[in-house]
């Protein structure tokens, strides 16, 4: 048979290129077109409501111009939708500014509820990466019906907080409280617990994740100035830029609670050291966390290193009479107290 | 019982749960362990006075050490594979002698004696019987050696240590250390490897292990690789080096398989499988002296015979199909010849030919019958003398004669290289496909596991063929 | 208590307790159903084989039995069907194995549940035992791998353990067929009601959870007066277990 292999190769790579352009994650043409088809009125209305809800909760005002800047839809669509929303009494104008009506607020709360429940679902029942939770929930919040939402809530055990620490509104619109101050505003020497990590904007959230800062950790502020915020948590020091620290919320510890100074991460345990487990960090979630509890990684259990694998990861720990291997990232989410007596 | 009451009950539990808060599960789990601790403290006493001799600990220090861990592991695996491949030769040859050279002619004679019509005789004895006999002869001995050896290691407790050593490497591609074992098991038989993935209790990693198990070159494919490498690769180097060259080519293909396994694992984690739940834990149980006879018995019953039975069930109809397509004529061409003609140009584009593609289609049930089918079909389309007749699979006693036959069918070095690649990268055999379906209970993952490797096979052989022809 | 051997014959493989007949896979005309539960790698399948005369493969590797296996034996003219459940660490999570095991103990209503534990890792194994005792009140604890425990200088006071758990405790070394006659005798006595169990119920639960469970469990008992495990169902409802909610709605507990 006669043909030119060069052409065959060119045609092949041409096809590969086309399918890459069409289907590459997120910015592939196929996805872009699919997304544009989806942006119907319901989604715009719900996004407007949510945006106003968050602004009002932060105690700020928002006019039409600011609103359309903060959403990804074009201005004409937004103006049209706002007109309709005032007619069906979801919002009113207060001079320049937009205000939610009571029914608008209820509606917004429902959207927030679905969003946070879905993030909780993704965290507990799936293997999606943290970075993906927000975008997937943004998508899902427009899709779930009332019944589906309630079923989901029951299945998740009616959680109070989403994985970032934000309270999830209940069916009746009840919201558990989230009190605290931004890490960037704390005085040196303050002692508290991380209760919330903001997942927007992406750039800052990525930095927080890269530092391996865990929600639920007890911290003590060591340094706080314009250049940097330094704090101590779980046996390590963390250094952040103030703008990053502002996205972390801390609740100060009550007087009777005291900072566990000896607390460390299991990953820092050395050969021949013994420790007892304090608990599992909130960062360990879903099946992974349940499995650890089932295996006896519970408060008070004594633990030591049994074996190190040739690469140093995973490490097998001796706990309740059995040798169980964990990977480094799992061990870093188990909190221990070092230096207990051996008993021998 | 009243529906409303039940609804009230569920609403009540929802409210109560919300009030308890998010640490319900943790508190409960801790509570149970606290009880367990109290009870066991009251009844268990451990004699700490005697310095306990932990032989286990000593073995562990060695088999997981930086220096010895990996050498021991590779040595053990290489030894098992070596014993399997070498040790299986003799019983395989013996079974082939009996089943193919004695029983087959005997059955033919018997059929002729009772005056069986030629088509029934061909269909049953040349088609069904021969395929089944072939599968038994090639498949049974290696599995009967490989599985008991592997099971002995398993019972001793060494395998979890292998998973422990290898986890770091597998983790990089998003897989579980235990996949090292299911992969090794796949070198014996992919269907058994897929069943073995049950030891991986994390859903995502288990699916990865199932889908990528086919990249382990199984027992049914080793002989094909060795035969083709001996004929074609061994021939391009000086004869003193031919054994070394052909063996290196086969090992190279196996290693390429491991590379594709890692690559595919990684790609799957990043794409279709990223939403599946992923957990990790690995218990290192104490060593226990294996009970050799019992182990051999159970591994034969549990693994070898089950897999063999499934293979036979699938091979029988395949034999029938092979005979039928060679003996049913449309116009003046048999179905086989007609299909080969239409597949030829696509085959050529992949550096293969129509015969090979048709052989892989009809030999889905078992990789073992690929070579006999190829030989039979080559005789059928080229019209060279030799062979046993249309639809009758055969193998030649001498490697040289096989090589001559294949060359007369138009085979070149490129055909051989691409056949070796395609033998590594094609759909799993139907036994394995069926097992994947039973294990995953999902049509979706079965389809992925079936089509992914064959698409990769097309792409790889296509690229190799084009680049080869450029130079 | 020492792990005593009743007779020399007991340890030989061909032993036959008086009145015992191993029936292999013949599971028809059954009088009692016995479930076999336990952690992975505790020799559960070995116990299964010792009782039924079957030869299921038993690997030294957690998680061999995924589907449940069935076998039977006959003792003193009663036929027992034995169901080998997948080995699990717990029944609180949601993996497939745990569901199979949990569903059988809960909905299959076995006459006796034999819980096989590793004697040298008792504390860890009790986690599962305590959960099972919340579901069923006819259970036998099979303290297996006594040979390994002895080698590690671990002594277990079986009487205290039996009193604390409220169920009979039988020490065995199933690999060497030690203690199997005792186990069979005990199973048959629990099945026939000769031994009445008073299983331990989980105590160390925080007050706010205990209160909620109490409240819920009282309501459940009002709806289903006959069920023995209202407290455990309350735990599962609080967990949001869909399977249990569904079972309540369809009346599977009635």
What does this structure look like?
The complex is a heterotrimer of chains A (344), B (471) and C (254). Helix content of chain A is 40%, strand content 21%. By secondary structure, chain A is of the alpha+beta class. Chain B is 74% helix and 2% strand. In chain B, helix 17 packs antiparallel against helix 19. The termini of chain B are far apart. The N terminus of chain C is likely disordered. The interface between B and C is large, with 63 and 65 residues. Strand 13 of chain A pairs antiparallel with strand 2 of chain B, so a sheet runs across the interface.
What is the topology?
The complex is a heterotrimer of chains A (344), B (471) and C (254).
Chain A: H1 5-23, H2 29-38, H3 41-57, H4 64-70, H5 75-87, E1 91-94, E2 97-100, H6 102-125, H7 130-140, H8 146-155, E3 181-182, E4 191-197, H9 202-210, E5 218-224, E6 229-233, E7 236-240, H10 242-245, E8 248-252, E9 263-265, E10 274-280, H11 286-294, E11 302-308, E12 315-319, E13 322-326, H12 328-331, E14 334-338
Antiparallel strand pairs in A: 1-2, 3-8, 4-5, 4-8, 5-6, 6-7, 9-14, 10-11, 10-14, 11-12, 12-13
Chain B: H1 3-20, H2 24-43, E1 44-46, H3 55-63, H4 69-113, H5 118-156, H6 159-172, H7 179-188, H8 190-196, H9 203-212, H10 222-236, H11 242-270, E2 282-284, H12 292-327, E3 329-330, E4 333-334, H13 335-349, H14 354-362, H15 370-382, H16 399-408, H17 413-424, H18 430-440, H19 443-470
Antiparallel strand pairs in B: 3-4
Helix pairs in contact in B: 4-5, 5-12, 7-8, 8-18, 9-11, 9-19, 10-11, 10-16, 10-17, 13-14, 14-15, 15-16, 17-19, 18-19
Chain C: E1 20-24, E2 32-38, H1 44-52, E3 69-75, E4 78-84, H2 96-107, E5 112-118, H3 122-135, E6 139-144, H4 146-151, E7 154-156, H5 158-165, E8 169-171, H6 180-192, H7 207-223, H8 230-239, H9 242-250
Helix pairs in contact in C: 7-8
Pfam family, one (chain A): FeoA
Keywords (chain A): Iron, Membrane, Transmembrane, Transmembrane helix
Domain Ferrous iron transporter FeoA-like (chain A): 181-252, 264-338
């Amino acid at each position: 048979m006669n043909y030119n292999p060069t052409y065959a190769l060119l045609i092949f790579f041409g096809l590969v290129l086309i399918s890459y352009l069409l289907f590459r994650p997120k910015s592939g043409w196929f996805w872009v077109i699919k997304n544009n088809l989806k942006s119907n009125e319901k989604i715009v209305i719900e996004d407007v409501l949510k945006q106003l809800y968050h602004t009002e909760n932060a105690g700020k005002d928002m006019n039409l111009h600011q609103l359309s800047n903060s959403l990804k839809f074009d201005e004409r669509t937004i103006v049209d939708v706002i007109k309709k929303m005032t007619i069906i009494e979801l919002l009113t104008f207060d001079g320049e500014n937009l205000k939610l009506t009571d029914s608008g607020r209820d509606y917004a709360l429902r959207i927030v509820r679905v969003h946070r429940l879905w993030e909780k679902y993704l965290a507990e029942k799936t293997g999606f990466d943290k970075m993906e939770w927000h975008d997937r929930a943004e998508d899902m919040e427009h899709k779930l019906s009332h019944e589906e939402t309630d079923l989901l809530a029951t299945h998740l055990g009616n959680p109070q907080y989403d994985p970032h620490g934000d309270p999830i509104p209940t069916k009746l619109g009840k919201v558990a409280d989230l009190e605290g101050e931004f890490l960037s505003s704390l005085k040196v020497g303050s002692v508290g617990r991380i209760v919330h990590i903001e997942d927007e904007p992406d750039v800052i959230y990525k930095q927080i994740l890269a530092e391996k800062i865990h929600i639920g950790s007890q911290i003590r502020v060591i340094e706080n100035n314009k250049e940097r915020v330094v704090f101590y948590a779980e046996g390590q020091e963390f250094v952040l830029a103030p703008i990053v620290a502002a996205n972390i919320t801390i609740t100060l510890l009550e007087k009777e609670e005291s900072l566990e100074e000896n607390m460390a991460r299991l990953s820092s345990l050395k050969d021949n050291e013994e420790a007892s487990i304090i608990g599992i960090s909130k960062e360990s979630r879903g099946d992974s966390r349940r499995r650890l509890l089932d295996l006896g990684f519970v408060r008070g259990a004594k633990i030591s290193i049994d074996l190190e694998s040739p690469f140093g990861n995973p490490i097998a720990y001796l706990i309740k009479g059995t040798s169980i291997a964990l990977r480094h990232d799992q061990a870093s989410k188990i909190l221990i107290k070092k230096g207990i007596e051996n008993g021998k | 019982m009243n529906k409303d009451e039940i609804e009230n009950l569920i609403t009540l539990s929802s409210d109560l749960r919300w009030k308890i808060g998010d640490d319900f599960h943790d508190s409960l789990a801790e509570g149970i362990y606290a009880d367990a601790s109290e009870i066991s403290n009251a009844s268990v006493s451990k004699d700490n006075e005697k310095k306990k001799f932990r032989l286990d600990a000593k073995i562990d220090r060695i088999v997981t050490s930086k220096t010895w861990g990996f050498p021991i592991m590779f040595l053990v695996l290489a030894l098992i594979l070596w014993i399997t491949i070498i040790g299986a030769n003799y019983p395989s040859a013996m079974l082939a002698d009996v089943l193919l050279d004695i029983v087959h002619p005997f059955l033919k004679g018997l059929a002729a004696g009772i005056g069986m019509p030629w088509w029934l005789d061909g269909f049953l004895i040349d088609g069904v019987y021969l395929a089944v006999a072939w599968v038994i002869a090639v498949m049974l001995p290696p599995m009967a050696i490989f599985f008991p050896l592997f099971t002995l290691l398993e019972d001793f407790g060494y395998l979890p240590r292998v998973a422990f050593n290898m986890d770091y490497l597998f983790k990089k591609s998003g897989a579980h250390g235990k996949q090292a074992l299911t992969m090794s098991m796949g070198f014996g038989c992919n269907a058994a490897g897929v069943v073995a993935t049950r030891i991986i209790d994390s859903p995502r990693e288990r699916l990865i292990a199932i889908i990528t198990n086919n990249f382990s070159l199984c027992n049914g494919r080793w002989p094909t690789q060795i035969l083709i490498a001996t004929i074609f690769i061994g021939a391009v180097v000086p004869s003193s080096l031919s054994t070394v060259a052909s063996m290196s080519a086969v090992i190279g293909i196996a290693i390429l398989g491991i590379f594709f396994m890692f690559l595919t694992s990684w790609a799957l984690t990043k794409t279709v499988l990223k939403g599946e739940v992923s957990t990790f834990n690995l218990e290192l149980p104490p060593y226990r002296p294996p009970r050799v006879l019992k182990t051999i018995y159970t591994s034969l019953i549990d693994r070898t015979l089950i897999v063999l039975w499934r293979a036979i069930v699938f091979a029988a109809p395949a034999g029938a199909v092979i005979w039928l397509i060679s003996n049913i004529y449309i116009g003046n061409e048999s179905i086989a010849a007609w299909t080969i003609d239409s597949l030829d140009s696509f085959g050529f584009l992949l550096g293969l030919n129509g015969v090979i593609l048709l052989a892989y289609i009809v030999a889905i049930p078992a990789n073992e019958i690929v070579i006999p089918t190829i030989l039979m079909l080559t005789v059928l389309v080229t019209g060279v003398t030799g062979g046993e007749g249309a639809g009758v699979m055969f193998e030649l006693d001498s490697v040289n004669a096989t090589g001559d036959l294949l060359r007369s069918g138009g085979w070149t070095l490129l055909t051989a290289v691409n056949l070796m690649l395609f033998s590594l990268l094609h759909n799993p055999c139907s036994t394995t496909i069926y097992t994947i379906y039973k294990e995953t209970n999902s049509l979706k993952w079965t389809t992925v596991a079936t089509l992914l490797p064959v698409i990769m096979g097309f792409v790889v052989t296509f690229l190799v063929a084009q680049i080869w022809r450029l130079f | 208590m020492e792990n005593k051997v009743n007779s020399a014959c007991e340890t030989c493989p061909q032993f036959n307790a008086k009145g015992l007949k191993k029936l292999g896979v013949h599971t028809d005309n059954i009088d009692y159903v016995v479930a076999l539960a336990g952690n992975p790698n505790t020799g559960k399948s070995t116990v299964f084989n010792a009782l039924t005369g079957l030869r299921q493969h038993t690997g030294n590797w957690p998680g061999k039995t995924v589907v449940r296996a069935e076998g039977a034996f006959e003792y003193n003219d009663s036929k027992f069907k034995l169901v080998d459940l997948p080995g699990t660490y717990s029944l609180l999570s949601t993996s497939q194995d745990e569901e199979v095991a949990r569903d059988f103990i809960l909905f299959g209503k076995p006459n006796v549940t034999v819980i096989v534990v590793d004697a040298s890792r008792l504390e860890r194994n009790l986690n599962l035992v305590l959960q099972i005792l919340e579901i069923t009140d006819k259970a036998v604890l099979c303290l297996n791998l006594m040979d390994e425990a002895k080698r590690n200088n671990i002594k277990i006071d079986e009487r205290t353990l039996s009193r604390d758990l409220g169920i009979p405790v039988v020490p065995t070394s199933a690999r060497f067929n030690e203690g199997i006659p005792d186990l069979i005798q005990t199973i048959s006595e629990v099945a026939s009601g000769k031994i009445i169990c008073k299983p331990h119920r989980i105590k160390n639960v925080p007050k706010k959870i205990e209160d909620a469970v109490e409240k819920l469990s009282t309501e459940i008992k009002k709806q289903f007066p006959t069920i023995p495990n209202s407290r455990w169902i309350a735990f599962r409802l609080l967990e949001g277990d869909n399977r249990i909610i569904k079972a309540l709605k369809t009346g599977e507990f009635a």
